[in-house]
Design goal:
Length: 231
């Protein structure tokens, strides 16, 4: 069953010439108005969902900015009498722009906070098992702090040999240590082998500790909750 929305002001509808950055917010406003007037169940059915509960969940996720699936956008476009292809194109353009801005902001933040360090290269780039990596804090073990970006090959080599010996050549969940990268600046540094011998310079952006989170029944478990556990 398809529903008309006569109470929605024409000037509030998203238009082809609208500025990027507000389009999704305008869509949420329209959907919110429809839900407020007709109720979640009727609007869910207007979107074509036979299972109202499923439709309501997707509506709520869309209004919360979580669900931007193409199939849902098509349903919303039809229900609001908008052109689906134009609407989806504008949403995709907006999301791509937002993604680029977010990446640029992250890089700028990483540059501002950068500190020289050793990055431990391992046989696995993705830890296994993930659960053990999160509980143990293994990803952070691949970063070894150093005092400056102007240390000599000999000084770095000594740090590497001590680290390799104390770790027994292994990073838990990442496997055997295969080498080290002395990240002098955010953009470059020097490579060393596991014996602390200089291999050569490299140009690559500094790596960061990836965000990892455990969840239980859809709820995130705070970091460090297992720190006081004993075996």
């Amino acid at each position: 069953m398809m529903t008309d929305f006569p109470d929605l002001e024409p000037e509030s509808r998203p238009r082809e010439g609208d500025t990027m950055g507000v389009y999704l917010e305008e869509l949420r406003t329209l959907v919110g108005q429809a839900v407020k007037r007709d109720g979640r169940g009727p609007f869910s059915r207007a979107l074509g969902y036979r299972n109202s509960a499923k439709g309501i969940r997707r509506i709520e996720k869309f209004l919360a900015g979580v669900d931007k699936g193409e199939d849902l956008l098509c349903r919303i476009a039809v229900a609001l009498h908008l052109e689906p292809n134009i609407m989806i194109r504008k949403v995709v353009e907006e999301l791509e722009r937002d993604c680029k801005q977010e990446i640029a902001a992250r890089i700028a933040k990483a540059r501002a906070e950068f500190q020289p360090h050793l990055f431990v290269e391992t046989e696995r780039t993705i830890p296994s098992p993930i659960f053990a990596a999160i509980v143990s804090g293994a990803p952070s073990m691949r970063f070894v702090p150093v005092r400056s970006e102007n240390m000599s090959h000999e000084e770095i080599g000594e740090i590497i040999r001590r680290h390799y010996e104390s770790s027994k050549g292994v990073i838990i969940t990442f496997g055997k240590i295969t080498g080290y990268r002395y990240q002098q600046t955010y953009d470059n540094g020097m490579k060393f082998d596991t014996d602390g011998r200089f291999i050569g310079p490299f140009e690559a952006a500094a790596k960061s500790i990836p965000p990892m989170m455990l969840s239980y029944k859809g709820r995130e478990i705070p970091p460090g909750v297992f720190r006081n556990c004993t075996t």
